[in-house]
Prior knowledge:
By secondary structure, the protein is of the alpha+beta class. It has one domain (45-179): Immunoglobulin-like. The chain is built from three helices and nine strands, in the order αααβββββββββ. Strands 1, 2, 3, 4, 5, 6, 7, 8 and 9 form a nine-stranded antiparallel sheet that branches. The radius of gyration is 21 Å and the shape is globular. Keywords: Signal. This is Secreted protein. Residues 1-36 form the signal peptide.
Amino acid sequence: MKTVGAMRRLMRNLTYTAAITLVTCPAALITGGAAAANPGASGPTRVALGAAMRQCDYSRTSVAPRLPAVSPPTGTGSALIHRAGSQAVAEVHLINPAQPGMHYDVGLIQAPRPATGSCGPGAPGTAFASLDLDAGGTGTVTVQDTVRQGTTGVWVIVERPNPNSQDPAEFYTSEFLVPM
C-alpha cells in the first residue's frame, strides 16, 4: 500500500510541475517549435557532425569509403548554421586531438539536389573553405554562400583529403538537414 501512495504522490508532483511550467513559460513551447521550423528567425541551429558519408542529395551512401584500420575517425565537431539575409552561414568547429595540425576541406551544401549530381568544390549551390587544426587539435572556420532559389535546407561536410585515394581519409557530415 505504501508503494501505491508513493506512486500517486510522485504522479501528482509531476503533474503540478508540468502545469506550473506551462503557466510560467508558455512562450517556450511556441518559440521552441518555431526555432526548429525556421532557424534564421531566432538564431543559429547547432548541428552535430557524425562520421557518416553522404551522397549529394543528403542520403547516406550504401557503401562507405574504406578507412585504414589505423586511422578511423577520431574527431568530433558541430556546426552553427543560420541564415543572414540572402546568405546561408555555417560556423564549423572540429576537435581532433589525435590529428593536430591536420588539414580539412569544409563544405556547405544546399538541398535539394540530385544524388548523381556533383556537390564538390565549384558545383552550384556549394561553398568550400579550408580548416587547419591547431597544435591542440581544434579548429573553426566559417563557410557561407548565397541561398539559391528553391533551396529548402543546407548541410555540412568535413573531409580530410587522402593522398593515396580519391576517397577521403576521414569525413564528418551534419546529423540532420537544417531548414532554410
